Amino acid sequence: MDIIKKAMLLGLGVISLTKEKAEEFVDDLIKRGEVTREERFKIVDKLLKEAEKQKEELFGKISETVQKVITDLGLPTKKDLDKISKRLEAIEKRIS
Fold it and tell me: Model's pTM, two decimal places?
């Protein structure tokens, strides 16, 4: 079984995966003879990179969902408010 899949199935969640947890997981695989000690650094690095990739994908999906909810609810964004603020400043200057 792919080590990345195995790590995720064994409860090493992408958000909570730390270097220490990855090392513990790989050390356990070494003890069970599933990987060699020489592969340790490479596997730990691979686990951490995959966890970071999955974390970025998750945050991207969350951001997209939040943006969709904001749009669906018709709420103004920071960009919208900045635009309004600039227009208001321009109007105030003309009045003065």
Answer: 0.61
